[in-house]
Write a structure and sequence with these properties.
Number of strands: 0
Oligomer: single chain
Shape: globular
Mean pLDDT: 85
Distance between the termini: 15 Å
Length: 70
């Protein structure tokens, strides 16, 4: 499952699943996975309509190699 699919699923089920957020599958970005599956906690500091800079920096597959689960 890609981080986009994970985000869609997380938003559909309420945006918070800390257990799932803590264990991304192989090949996925740890940061994107956490932001998708524990979205409410991670994004709580954002104002309505404010963009998450870490999410934006990873859009389009721009994930640092050290964050990819091997």
């Amino acid at each position: 499952m890609s981080w986009i699919d994970a985000l869609g699923e997380a938003l559909t089920v309420g945006g918070s699943n800390p257990e799932k957020a803590a264990s991304p599958p192989r090949g996925e970005c740890r940061q994107c996975w956490e932001h998708a599956y524990d979205s409410r906690r991670v994004h709580a500091h954002l104002a309505p309509g404010e963009e998450c800079e870490p999410c934006l920096s990873h859009m389009g597959g721009r994930h640092p190699a050290h964050l990819i689960v091997t």
